[in-house]
Recover the amino acids of this structure.
């Protein structure tokens, strides 16, 4: 239910923002409809800005000591509402937004581990937050989304 409500709010927000170029001119057209998801490895937090405005801040789990999460700026390369890891025993990866090879932002059921490194390199989110992020990327488009991972 929460995911449905969040998705509707995101869709309403997207529709409202799509009209902003008409109201505010061409400069707004360049700025409108962009998402930046900034992941801090040291803080284990993902902050999502929509059109430059901080919108969400969520706890994450990134790579543990034995598994690196790549740093840099990425664009989503593919999305799957449900994916199963071919590398890690068909582990479920709901609401996957892949950004570099096999690395993705996705939901985890190990929510007690959020806020600390625990993954094999992916960025793990609470299932509700992963569903919201997936919906944001789907609504605004991968080309208008940046995933920035910093130390």
């Amino acid at each position: 239910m929460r995911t449905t409500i969040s998705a509707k709010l995101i869709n309403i927000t997207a529709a409202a923002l799509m009209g902003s170029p008409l109201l505010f001119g061409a400069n707004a057209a360049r700025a409108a409809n962009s998402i930046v998801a900034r992941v801090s490895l040291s803080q284990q937090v993902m902050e999502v800005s929509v059109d430059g405005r901080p919108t969400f801040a969520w706890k994450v789990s990134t790579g543990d000591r034995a598994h690196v999460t790549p740093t840099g700026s990425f664009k989503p390369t593919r999305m799957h509402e449900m994916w199963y890891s071919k590398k890690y025993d068909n582990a479920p990866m709901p609401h996957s937004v892949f950004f570099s090879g096999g690395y993705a932002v996705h939901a985890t059921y190990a929510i007690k581990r959020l806020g600390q490194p625990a993954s094999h390199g992916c960025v793990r989110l609470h299932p509700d937050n992963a569903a919201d992020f997936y919906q944001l990327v789907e609504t605004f488009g991968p080309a208008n989304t940046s995933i920035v991972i910093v130390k």
Notes: The two ends are 35 Å apart (CA to CA). The first strand starts at residue 35 and ends at 40. The helical segments are 2-18, 20-24, 26-31, 127-140. The chain has four helices and nine strands.
